[in-house]
UniProtKB/TrEMBL annotation:
InterPro entries: DeoR_HTH (IPR001034), GAF-like_dom_sf (IPR029016), HrcA (IPR002571), HrcA_C (IPR021153), WH-like_DNA-bd_sf (IPR036388), WH_DNA-bd_sf (IPR036390), WHTH_transcript_rep_HrcA_IDD (IPR023120). Negative regulator of class I heat shock genes (grpE-dnaK-dnaJ and groELS operons). Prevents heat-shock induction of these operons. It comes from Brevibacterium linens ATCC 9172. HAMAP family: HrcA (MF_00081). This is Heat-inducible transcription repressor HrcA.
């Protein structure tokens, strides 16, 4: 959808439908929004938007409502519909500026979203099964103990302390690091963990040779598998629940179930995953 006026018509339909929960007609758009065109022109734009799958008519003689694809387009172009002010941009840059890890970045981002929208903000951690291991760092902590740090190309960092069968000097740690990176660097997390042959081989070798390996290689390989498992954990973070409570009068008796759903992260994860899958299907159907 490249036409800027049709984009504004879509914006009007989304905003009015969200505000009223009623299908939106061309006359209402002309009355509520200053688009500078006639109702007939708006109807033509709405017909094109409907043909492209961004809006739908729930029943005959009704106005139009946004589809999932329409909502997605609205969100993707939100910076065009409601540009950030200079102060808002400055606040965002100040909050997310600096060298921070993925956890801290997502935590800051969800708080920014909640503050700007004055709504509840949810962020689902990136699906990292396709991410690749960028590097495995190994650091000596003392006699018989090393720290294994897993770094992915998705920005995630996990670490685990490992006890080695014998103390390792710097050369041994360096050799261990080189061997582990030769084994794992560049592999996807899905190859290392799950039903893949790589994961099964690592697990088998860990159980068979743990007793006779004095270099710590078996223990470190097992630690890498454990760290990969930690990166695959599905999580969400949330901020701004108080904003929803302030709008309690708008939800009435529905407030309690909404708050309970927010507390149950498993339900939210399923919902977000389902939405992502549906969005992918809509995009494929739209391209077809």
């Amino acid at each position: 959808m490249n036409d800027s006026r049709r984009a504004q018509v879509l914006r009007a339909i989304v905003e009015d439908f969200v505000a009223t929960n009623e299908p939106v007609g061309s006359k209402a758009i002309v009355q509520r929004h200053t688009l500078g065109v006639s109702p007939a022109t708006i109807r033509n734009d709405m017909a094109q938007l409907e043909h492209e799958g961004y809006i739908a008519q729930p029943h005959t003689s009704a106005g139009r409502i946004p589809t999932d694809l329409g909502y997605r387009m609205f969100v993707d172009r939100i910076d065009e519909f409601k540009p950030l002010t200079t102060a808002e941009r400055r606040a965002i840059f100040q909050l997310i500026d600096g060298d921070v890890d993925l956890d801290e970045m997502l935590d800051r981002t969800v708080r920014v979203l909640s503050g700007l929208t004055r709504q509840v903000a949810l962020i689902q951690y990136p699906t990292v099964s396709r991410a690749r291991i960028k590097h495995v760092e190994i650091v000596g902590l003392g006699p018989g103990r090393i720290l294994v740090v897993l770094i992915t190309d998705a920005g995630q960092v996990e670490q685990k302390s490992v006890i080695t069968p014998t103390p390792l000097d710097e050369d041994a740690v360096r050799g261990l690091r080189d061997q582990i990176n030769a084994d794992f660097a560049g592999r996807t997390l899905a190859q290392v963990f799950g039903s893949s042959p790589t994961a099964e081989a690592v697990a088998a070798e860990s159980s068979e040779s743990a007793g006779r390996d004095e270099s710590g290689l078996t223990q470190v390989r097992a630690a890498v598998v454990d760290l990969v498992a930690a990166t695959r954990e599905e999580r969400i973070i949330m901020a701004g629940t108080a904003n929803l409570a302030r709008s309690g009068s708008e939800f009435g008796e529905k407030m309690a179930p909404i708050l309970e759903a927010f507390e149950e992260q498993v339900v939210l994860l399923r919902l977000l995953t389902s939405m992502a899958e549906d969005h992918g299907g809509d995009q494929r159907a739209h391209r077809a």
